[in-house]
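> Could you send the NADH dehydrogenase [ubiquinone] 1 alpha subcomplex assembly factor 4 prediction when you get a chance?

Sure thing. Input:
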Amino acid sequence: DSPEIKEQIFRKDDKLLTLLKDVYVESRDPPVQVKDGGGGHLPCKQEEKRLTKLGHLGALDVKKVPKGKISIVEALTLLSNHKLDPQIWTAEKIAAEYSLELKEVNSLLEFFIPFTVQEFPKETKKAIKS
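Output:
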């Protein structure tokens, strides 16, 4: 707390200042060495996601899916819509609505056909005789 010590701390030494101005420092980082780990731990690119068109399952429905993919509920819905009204639900409209590629939608509509359950009237059923 003495004023003499404080004065010595804050006093500039001209000789040291001139020597300090002559100092030149060059700093370089060492070359980076890549460890051959197979690239398994590299961070992956964040996928774009879209909100799904929710079905009747509420909490069990998937809320977000990557663009270019659909949930099971959406797949069943779009197949059913196309089957009921193919003029309105064309492959182009489905591709735009669900952010899918047209080629994939065409394959989906061609190879995945929802089946219809039909019940026969009771009078046409044959009774089993013992």
